[in-house]
Design goal:
This protein is α+β, with helices and mostly antiparallel strands. It folds into four domains: 3-47 and 161-293, Rossmann fold (3-Layer(aba) Sandwich); 51-156, no CATH class; 312-444, Trna Endonuclease, Chain: A, domain 1 (3-Layer(aba) Sandwich), CATH 3.40.1350; 445-567, Sandwich (Immunoglobulin-like). The protein has twelve helices and 33 strands. Bound molecules: S-adenosylmethionine. S-adenosylmethionine (SAM) binds at residues 176, 178-180, 202-203, 205-206, 208, 223-226, 229.
């Protein structure tokens, strides 16, 4: 990077101007740096010139069919239909360039007896023969000077996209609050990559980069620290339908066929060459006989939030710096949960103790950027039991998939009661102001599933039925079960043989909400049933781990996972 690799600062319109006492802010900026500007790919996007608008300012002359040349009138610019029939609008161009050269700067005598003089420190842009050809082709104005080349408006009615994009708007129908305009992202991809190239966006959000890359036949990788974003992006990609582009010889690697424009230039005329063909990189040739969907994708997450798990969990060391911050975090969360929480000084997994009417409750807080693990729950319970406390509340931002199982095993063993409590994701973002605890914490609720067993001799097959999903009602601040067919389930996934660590999507079910418009595109009938959310899985055999996992993503992008042993 570094300033020598600066490429451009692009400003683009956003939909709403931020209200301010002063000048409204109506644009965002795209700061473009290359890793190595010497190796940068740049494919200009060409916009059609608009007569009287972009790219046409210099076209101030008009040539009539009888050869008369005059300035273009203002009302002809405003309304080009006022131009006389057969009139050609043109700009003038210089036929010389800087630098004297022995063979390229000599006087040229034209057939009309005029002599063109190059002048000191200049040379002709094309050879003297070329200049004569331009004269024969009526491309030179019959006057002295160097700005005598006639560049007609229609020689190339395009202009490269500049760094001011006033023709874009914020994304309509956003599925993510900070969703970027797909026109902006597409332009970045088209200007700097070719089909088949690999694009990386470390801040996936709703997956605009992946969506645009998929649409333009680029490969992509993206990531996000938020699961909500990953779920929104996954759904967006899996329910997208794209135009099918014609390829040069049947494979994407051979390139996408692009619409092209011809460019007549001074040198193509001077050397009698065919006008150059210029690709319009943002205009692929669409093959209407097919549509495309997103190709196979893999969604991966750190199976164990590796770093946090490795560090252990939230065990305090009193001290300064990081340790003091950690202590403060635990205190704040515990106090938000129970005002009366007595913070425990000792290291261990019981971070605070609160009093109920009848008994004590041990509180254990999960890591700030990781999941509550089965080990944390186990250890917190052991620590609590050692102090004679029989109720343990484990608070976390996220939980390992098998925590439901761990809780019931601990409770089955006797005496102890374990509550798993979700901390609302924006709790810290709100500056930890004193809010009602029931607004910030809700019991961890797992998806409600049923496993139907179908035994045929030795063979055991299963089907999983999704009955419901637990949803946090933001208005009422409570967690409620909603029936699986109530429209709150966005997608659910089944791991038919869960190894306890890595969730593998064996079966996936989506609620597309809107049926993709395949009928119009392919003139084919698709049963709407194909797009409704299936609540019963396909039949599958029991395998090695004797355990299944079901992950449900609700319409807000929150996911919860339930694990079930098959006995
Ligand atoms: C402005 S949004 C991106 C929007 C996206 N271009 C779209 O069209 O939806 C930024 C995203 O970056 C994610 N993010 C922020 N910090 C991150 C980090 N350190 N690593 C990965 N993702 C991060 C946020 O969760 C958020 O989803």
């Amino acid at each position: 990077m570094g300033k020598s690799n600066f490429c451009s600062l692009i400003s683009f319109n956003k939909t709403t101007g931020q209200t301010s006492r002063l000048v409204p802010t109506v644009c965002d900026y795209l700061v473009w740096y290359a890793k190595d500007i010497g190796q940068l790919k740049y494919r200009p996007i060409l916009l059609r010139k608009e007569f009287g608008g972009i790219g046409s300012v210099e076209y101030t002359n008009v040539e009539l069919p009888d050869g008369t040349i005059r300035r273009i009138e203002d009302d002809e610019i405003e309304n080009p239909s006022r131009l006389p029939q057969g009139a050609r609008v043109f700009a003038t161009g210089d036929i010389t360039a800087d630098g004297w050269s022995e063979g390229g700067s000599a006087d040229i005598r034209l057939p009309n007896k005029m002599t063109l003089k190059c002048g000191p420190n200049l040379h002709w842009k094309v050879s003297s023969k070329g200049i004569l050809r331009l004269f024969e082709k009526h491309r030179l104005l019959p006057r002295e000077g160097h700005r005598i080349y006639k560049r007609y408006y229609d020689d190339f009615p395009y202009i490269p996209l500049s760094n001011v994009w006033t023709d874009v708007r914020g994304e309509p129908g956003k599925s993510y609050v900070v969703q970027t305009s797909s026109t902006v992202v597409s332009r970045c991809l088209l200007m700097t990559t070719d089909p088949g190239d690999l694009v990386f966006d470390p801040t996936c959000g709703s997956g605009t980069t992946a969506y645009c890359a998929e649409r333009s036949a680029r490969r992509w990788i993206t990531c996000d620290s938020s699961r909500v974003a990953v779920n929104v992006a996954r759904k967006r990609l899996l329910s997208a339908v794209y135009d099918h582009y014609a390829t040069r010889n049947g494979t994407v690697a051979s390139g996408i066929k692009l619409e092209s424009a011809t460019r007549v230039t001074m040198s193509s005329l001077a050397y009698d060459r065919e006008p150059e063909k210029v690709d319009l990189v943002d205009q692929p040739v669409i093959d209407k006989s097919a549509v495309r969907v997103t190709g196979p994708i893999e969604v991966m997450s750190l199976g164990r939030y590796s770093i946090e798990d490795w560090k252990g969990y939230v065990v305090r060391e009193s001290g300064v710096g990081e340790a003091a911050k950690l202590e403060n975090y635990i205190e704040v969360i515990c106090r938000l949960y129970r005002k009366d929480a007595a913070i425990q000084g000792a290291t261990g997994l019981v971070h605070a103790v609160a009093e109920n009417e009848k008994h004590k409750i041990a509180i254990s807080v999960g890591p700030l950027s990781g999941r509550v693990t089965a080990k944390q729950i186990n250890d917190a319970v052991q620590d609590a039991l050692a102090s004679g406390i029989l109720e343990v509340h484990v608070l976390g931002w996220a939980f390992e998939a098998n925590v439901g199982e761990v809780k019931s095993q601990l409770e089955k063993r006797g005496k102890v009661k374990v509550e798993l409590i979700m901390i609302r994701p924006d709790t810290l973002a709100e500056g930890l102001k004193a809010t009602q605890p029931e607004m910030l914490f809700s019991p961890l609720a797992l998806p409600d599933i049923e496993v139907a067993v179908d035994k045929n001799g030795k063979e055991k097959h299963l089907r999983v039925i999704l009955n419901g999903v637990a949803l946090f009602d933001r208005k009422r601040r409570t967690t409620e079960y909603k029936a699986a067919d109530s429209g709150y389930v966005s997608a659910w996934y089944l791991d038919e043989d869960y190894d306890g660590d890595c969730f593998v999507d064996c079966q996936m079910f989506f609620d597309f909400k809107k049926t993709p418009n395949i009928k119009a595109a392919l003139k084919a009938e698709v049963d709407p049933e194909e797009y409704t959310l299936q609540l019963t899985s396909q039949r599958f055999p029991v395998r090695g781990y004797n355990r299944i996992a079901v992950k449900v993503v609700d319409v807000y992008g929150n996911e919860s996972t339930v694990v079930r042993d098959i006995t």
